[in-house]
Amino acid sequence: PQTVPEMPGETPPLSPIDMESQERIKAERKAHEKPHRCLQVPEKEAGADRPARGKSENLESANSELASTANMLREQVAQLKQKVM
Question: Which UniProt keywords apply (predicted)?
Answer without folding.
Answer: DNA-binding, Transcription, Transcription regulation
